[in-house]
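re: ur question from yesterday

yeah so i grabbed the chain u mentioned. its 218 aa long if i counted rite. heres the sequnce exactly as i have it in my notes:
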Amino acid sequence: VFANCSFATTEEALFLENVARQYILAQFTEKNDNIRYNIKVSKVDRNRDFGGKCSGYLSAKLLTPEIKKNSIVKIICRRKNNPYSIQIPVSIIVQRATIVASDNIPKGSAITQSMLEKKFVNENLILNQSITDASSIIGSKTKKDIRAGDFLKISDLCLVAKGDVVTISARSHGLEIKASGIAMEEGKLNETIAVKNIKSGKIIRALVRSANSVEVVF
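ran it thru and got these C-alpha cells back, copy pasting raw so excuse formatting
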C-alpha cells in the first residue's frame, strides 16, 4: 500500500511539473526555426498527496504580467473534493541557432555548405560577430584556421578581397538595379567598402552582403 501511494504521489508531481512546462511553451506562439526554448521546472514535493490527477478542473497562470527568464506558474485545481493550488518556479533558457564548423577548416579555404552546421546554444553565449545565416558566407575565404565545432565569426572571414569582381545591387522604390564592379579594398560581412563601377568608372561606397556581392544603401 505504501509503495502504491508513493508511486501515485511521484506521478502527480511529475504531471504538475509537465503542466507548468507545457504552459510556458504555449506562451511562445511565434514559430521560429532558429529559436528553441529550454524550460527547467523546479521539482514538486514528492511527499505531498494531491489526491490524484486533477483532469478537467486544472488551470494555470503566470504570477507576473509577462514571461521572464525566471517565472512562477500558479496551477489551480478547482475540483469540489480536495481542491488545491501550487506555485512552481521555472527558468527559461533561450537557445538560438548559430553556425559552427562541421570539420577543421584551414586558413584560406573557400567556405562551402558542407563545412558548416547549425548548432543551438544559449543566447547569452553567442558573440555579436557570430554567424546565424550560413547562406551569407558561402564562397567567402577563411582568414585563419578554424577548428571543428568553433563558432564562425565575421572577423574570421573575408567575403570580398581587394581586386575581386563583385555584383553591385541597388534598390529603390521596389526596383533593383545590378551592375558589375571591382572591390577597391577587402571587406567583411556588413562592412562598407569602396567599389569601382566597371561601366561608369565611378567609385562608390557599398555594404558587403555576401561573397562577392555588395549593396548600395540609399
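noticed a couple things. Helices lie at 2-26. also The chain is about 10% helix and 40% strand.
anyway ttyl
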